[in-house]
Structure formats: C-alpha cells, structure tokens
Amino acid sequence: MQQLIADLALILVVAGVTTLVFKRLKQPLVLGYIVAGFIAGPHMPITPTVTDTGSIQTWADIGVIFLMFTLGLDFSFKKIVKMGMGPVIAACCIIFCMMSVGSIVGHLFGWSSMNSLFLGGMLAMSSTTIIYKAFDDLGLRQQKFAGEVLSVLILEDILGILLMVVLSAMAVSRQFEGVQLMGSLFKLAFFLILWFVVGLYVVPTFLRRTQRWMNRETLLVVSVGLCFLLVSIACRAGYSAAFGAFMMGSILAETVEAEHIERLVSPVKDLFGAVFFVSVGMLVDPAVLTAYAVPIVVICLAIIAGQSVLGTASFLLSGHPLRTAIRCGFSMCQIGEFAFIIASLGVSLHVTASFLYPVVVAVSIITTFFTPYMIRAAVPVAAWAERAMPQPVLKRLDHRGTRHAATPPQHLLWRSLLTALLSQVGAYLSLSVGVIGLAFSVLLPLSRHTLGHWPGNVVCGLLTLLAASPFLRAIVMRKNHSAEWKTLFRRSRADRVGLWCTFTARYAVAAACVYYVLNFLSPLWWPWHVLASLAIVLLMVKSRRVKWTSIKLERTFLQNLRQREVQARHEQGGMPGYAGRLQSRNLHLTEVELPEDSTWAGKRLAELGFGHNEGVMVAAVLRGTHRILIPDGHTMLFPSDRLDVIGDDESLAKFTQRMQREVRPAPHSDEDGLLLRRYLLREGSPLIGQRISQSGIRDKYHCMVVGFEDEAGGIIPAAAQHVLKRTDTLWLVGTDDHLRTLRGVMQPPAARGE
Q: How far is Cα 254 from Cα 261, in angstroms, rounded to an integer?
C-alpha cells in the first residue's frame, strides 16, 4: 500500500509539472501525460521510477472505464438520427479506408495478421480531444466545417466501440471466418438492443422516483455504481469493460440528470484518465522506437496521406463541396486516445506484439504535432484544387449536396412504415429472447428442483409466456393502426397485400418464439406445438390485459426517452428549429458562453455593436433557465451568459476572437490586492473623537476598520458606533495606496510635515 501511494505521488507530481509546461506551450494535455509517463517509466534511468506497475495498470483500466463512461454521456441516439446519412457515410468510409491502409502497412513490414488488424483499427480513429483543442486554439470551432468534422468524430467514437467488440471476438477466436464474425455481430446487436431498451426503461424511472432523496453525493455514487454494474455484466457476457461503461453512459445521457452527472464525474474522469495516459507513456521504450524508426515514419506518412486523400474523398462522397471536404479531411490527420484504448485492448488480450504499443504512441505524438499545420494547409490546398479542377466538375461537386431527389409519396410511406416496423420488431424480439433466456437459465432450474421435472417445466413455461406476452403482442400489433398503415390500406389492393404480408411475417416471428418455449419444455409432437403456438399468440392479441400492459410499458419507455428533450423545450433551451435551414444560406447558428472575466459583462448589446463590427446577430440570450428571445439593444450581458449567434464562418470567427481577446487582465502583484496593516492613532489626529461610521474611513479613504488591539495583543471587533480615542491601535484593511493616504490623517500635523 505504501509503495502504491508513493508511485501515485510520483505520477501525479510529474504529470502536474509536465502538463503546466504543455499548457504554457499551448499543446494538448494528453501529450503532457504521455511525456510524464515516459519520465516516470522504467525506461528513464536518471529519474525516479514507478515500481508497482501492476497496481498502476489497474488504475489505468479504471481510467479507461471513466473515459468511455463520459463519452457515452455525450452520446445521444436522437442526435445521431438527426445528423442524417452524410456523417454516417463519411465515418464508415474513413474507418474502412484507414483500416485497410493500416492492415496493408502492417503486412508490408511482415507483421502478423493480428498485429496488422489492430494497427488498422488504431489508424482508423482520429482524436476528438486533439482536434477539438486545435479548432479552439486556431479560432475555427465556430466555423461550419468544424461542426461537420466533430459530427463525424462522434460517429467514429461510436463505431470505435463496435470495432473494439469485433476485434475482441477475433482476438479470442484467432479466426476470421465470416460465419463466426456474423454470429458475433448478431450477438452484439442483441446485447445492445436488450440493454439499451431495458436500461432506458429501468434507469430513468429509478432516478425519477428517487429524485427527492438525491443530492450531489448520492447522484455521483449511484451513477458510478450503475456504470460499474453494467461493466461487470458486459465482462461476464464476453465484452470489454469499456463497452459496458459506454452503454451505461449512453443510457444516462437520455435522463434529465445527464449534464449534472457529467459535471460530477468530470473530476474523477480527469484524475483516472491522467493515470491512464501516464501508463501509456510508461510503455514507451526508446530502444523500440529506434529499432522501429522506419515503420513509425511510414505509418505517420500513411495517416497524413490517407486522411488527406481518402478522408477528403469520404467527405465528398457524403455530399460536401470540394473546399469543405478538403478542410475536413486535412483536419483528421492524427490518432489519439482511442488508438491507445485499442492498443491496450490488444495488450490485455495478449494478441499484439510488445513493440506495437510504443510505436502507436510515437505516431500519435508526431501526427498531433502536425495537426495545426495540416488544418492551416487545407485552405491553400483547397484553393489550388479549385483552380486546377475543370469548372464543370467543380460545379457538379459544389452543387451535389444541395440537390435532393424527389421520392414518390408511396415510397415515402412504405419506407417510413418499414423502418418503424423493423426497429420495433427488433427491440421487442430482443426483449422476448432476453425473457426466455433469463427464464431458462434461472427460473427453470429452480422450478425443476422445487416441483420436479415436468411440473417445473409447466410452471416455467407459463411464467415465461406470461412475462413475454406484452412484447410478443407488440411484435404483431404495433403500427397496425398508424396513419401510414391506414393510408396504404385505403390506397390500393397491392398495398393491402403488402400490409397483410408484413402482418403475417410478424405473427410468424411471435409464434416462433412461443414454439421454441413449447418445444423445449413439452414432450408432445411438433405439429401440436405449431398449432398451440398460433393459438397462444392469438390469445395474446385478443387479451385486453396484455394489451394495456404492453401500452403502459411502451408509454413509460417513450417518456423516459423523450424526457430530456421535453425538459429542454420547457426551459426553451433547445436549438431553434430554423437552425438547420440556415445551413443552405451560408449562415449557421452557434452557441457561445461569455467568459466570467469578460469586459462585455455589464454592457448593453447596443454598446458592443456586434452587427456593425463583426456582422453577427444575437438571436437569444440564455441566462440559467431563463431565455431572452430576440434581445434588443438595451439587453445587458452578464458573466456566463450563453448567446445564440447567427453569422457566416468569417463573421463568427471574428466574433469569437474578439470575445476571447476582450477580458479583464488578472492582477500581477499584491499592490492591486487588499492588505491588513496595524496603525496607532496619535494625538492631534482629526479622527479622534469621531465615531467609525462618521470618520470617513470607509467612504472617503476606502478602507475598513477590522478591530482594535487590546493590552494582551488580541483584536476586539470594531463597532460602527465606537468613538476613536488617542492611543487606539487600529487594524485596517485596504489597498496599499489607500492605506498610505489614511496613515497621513492618523498622524498629528507636525508628524505629517516631517
């Protein structure tokens, strides 16, 4: 224990010093942590070294859990849906292309298939933290292309979670068969749907019913406890701890307490995250870097060239114009924290070579260093590409994202209906399978042990079908009375045939679930099981009790899913509906927060002149839970106000730079602060005989009497009605200049003249 404390002290002290240096150099803190790990690691003989690496690795694993948990808190399924297909296409293309590049590079150096595969996974994931920091430092975060990049990065993080699961399955089996891979993907989909649906039903309901007893401490304990609970369940199911942490974070992201939980967990995440990145730096071996200098250089060039070319092509494929695509592709030419997590996964599974981890860390440091230069280089490269490209091709690329093919109304109806049916059948089928699996693994052995084999089978079968009946009924009856269904049913005979086909298919799915239960527990001939399954599903459909139970469960789930959105709408804090329409007008809306030390605080909008100077318009001011819509020139700004600002990229960049520039400087010396000093009131002072409240010490000289010194040296608190007398010893608080001025009137005239 003592050694662990000493190692943590060494890690945190070195990390603190290095991060201060990197903060001063305006470099990402992640690199500072890695350098700190290298300094405190076993490969630096001239400095103190961490000895208990096993315990540090345990803390680092906890850091990964918190990193993925907070990543899940930033995730919102509804936001992903609202993004459209453009970011999805770009993210999938980038991941596929960069994985292919990484695998090819690994095979060219003669590395094993598993090393090459994991290398491809590391190269596919750009760093959200590093890119966000680079945009912030360069004043580009408010520009339109930066928003497109961040949307793709969010999707990359989500796909990275799935990639980790697939790589884990491949690493365990050491095989690449398509059948086994598809089985792993189906198992993953089942796990995702089951826990997301169950979690969204249970967790928000639990938090809502216990809200009256929740304070900051209990909310932190409960949220972290839920995180580690799902981590444990995910590990037992054969998935990584990071996957379980992300799932619980995404579940809590849909609750109204999400932002509060994120603020509470952030210090814990920062601490353990620092330990994780330090542990990454501890694995950096200079001898390995020297031996693999050529692969490091080649991998760096592969990332820069691959993201510049293939990333740009991916953004073009997703419908962005040429200039935007080039700026987006050039912004993603680095790897970061997710690559470290994938590398640590390979190490923990013992499927990657020892050299791969330090190689990836070195590549990350080098590519991070070049990130700002690649972002700046994108502008002249885009200008050159526009000049070199034939004008017809350029016009086609610039206008392809604005054209939308007209879809026939009947196709829109069918697409909407089938999308809803597939998602709902998938969710309810996962719940049904989960109920059956839980019953057969827990309830069946218990009932057989208690009641005997066949009576236990009967009891287990009845309880299983009863528990699954609301979900099986929903599979058959959902969307049968929707507006799309009614419109299609009335329109044509062909549409009616299609609707009856969907109904029959869903009925067959529900009957198949019942058949599986009966066939597993009953010794009867299978045709009887088929007939019984059809009849049982019909009873479920006709039962009013099952119907209302199913509706109640669904209403609770939808309420939990929408509660954060409803609260935002209630507080009028959500993004306005017109924000999306501005995109097609070369304008966009963004939210900025006024710094606490801004000189704008206390000024009115008319005085600041944003429209005249920067060409931006303030659409709303959010102050706490109060929102001022369409503020006029008399609206005063206060620290920490959030402003909804409308403008183009150039105007918003000027606005942001001005906001960051116009802040109050911090005091550089104690001369600007308050001082406590002791003064003796001598004979002849004009203050003698006056009450403190009438003496002008506070109003005229801007000082404050703290108290009077007694004979024993103690301080007696001052009262406003106290009459000042000769030989009083006063303790005063004020600035140095004000105290010097007051000291003059506390002396007799002769002393003042000396």
A: 12
pLDDT mean over 605-628: 83
Residue 255 has, within 13 A of its CA and on its CB side, a CA count of: 28
For 457, phi then psi, to 5°, come to: -60, -40
- Length of the chain, in residues: 754
Q: How confident is the model at residue 405 (pLDDT cuts 50, 70, 90)?
A: very low
> By mean pLDDT, which of 377-381, 518-522, 527-531, 594-598 is the weakest?
594-598
Model confidence over 495-517: pLDDT tens digits?
888 888 988 999 999 999 999 98
Output the CA torsion sign for 595, 599, 605, 611: negative
| 491 pLDDT more than 50 | yes
For 2-43+59-380, CATH gives 1.20.1530.20
Longest dimension (CA), the chain: 121
User: Does 587-661 match 2-43+59-380 at the fold level?
Assistant: no
Cβ–Cβ < 8 Å for 560, 623: no
**CATH of segment(s) 587-661:** 3.30.70.1450
- Pairing type for strands 642-647 and 675-680 reads unpaired
According to DSSP, residue 311 is labeled: I
* Cα separation, 700 vs 712, whole angstroms: 31
Q: Would you list the domain boundaries of the chain? A: 2-43+59-380, 412-566, 587-661, 670-753
DSSP H or E segment with residue 647: strand 642-647
- CB-count burial class (<10 Å; 0-12, 13-18, 19+) for 67: buried
Cα 479 to Cα 201, 422, 472, 647, distances in angstroms: 21, 11, 14, 42
The contacts found for 263-268 with CB under 8 angstroms, 24 or more apart, are 264/216, 264/219, 264/220, 264/223, 265/66, 265/69, 265/70, 265/73, 265/220, 265/223, 265/224, 266/70, 268/66, 268/220, 268/224
Phi, psi (5° rounding) for residue 647?
175, 175
Q: Tell me the C-alpha distance between 525 and 201, whole Å.
A: 39
Specify whether the CB–CB gap between 436 and 517 falls below 8 A: yes
Backbone angles phi, psi at 587, to 5 degrees: -120, 155
User: At 78, is the pLDDT very low, low, confident or very high (cuts 50, 70, 90)?
Assistant: low
Instruction: Give the per-residue pLDDT at 77.
Output: 67
Q: Where are the alpha helices (DSSP H) in 571-707?
A: 579-582, 605-608, 610-613, 649-661
Q: In this structure, what are the phi and psi dihedrals at residue 295, rounded to the nearest 5 degrees?
A: -60, -35
How distant, in Å, are the alpha carbons of 119, 154, 276, 614 from that of 129? Answer: 20, 11, 15, 29
Question: Is 403's pLDDT higher than 50?
Answer: no
Q: How much is the pLDDT for 224?
A: 92
According to the model, what pLDDT value does residue 81 have? 64
Rounded Cα distance between 420 and 448, Å, is 40
Antiparallel, parallel or unpaired: β 729-734 and 704-709:
antiparallel
8 A C-beta contact, residue 536 and residue 542: no
Q: Which residues are CB-contacts of 540 (< 8 A; sequence separation ≥ 6)?
A: 469, 472, 473, 476, 510, 546
Question: Are 161 and 243 spatial neighbours (Cβ–Cβ below 8 Å)?
Answer: yes
pLDDT for the residue 402: 43
- Average pLDDT, rounded, for the chain: 80
Task: State the Cα–Cα distance between residues 91 and 158, nearest whole angstrom.
Answer: 10
Give yes or no for residue 582 having a pLDDT over 60: no
Total Cβ atoms within 10 A of residue 21: 12
Which of 98, 106, 241, 117 is CA-nearest to residue 156?
A: 98
Which amino acid is it at 478? Answer: R
Backbone phi, psi, residue 632, to 5°: -95, -175
**Taking the C-alpha atoms of 541, 545, 549 and 551 in order, what is their torsion angle to the nearest 10 degrees?**
60
- CATH superfamily membership of 670-753: Regulator of K+ conductance, C-terminal domain (3.30.70.1450)
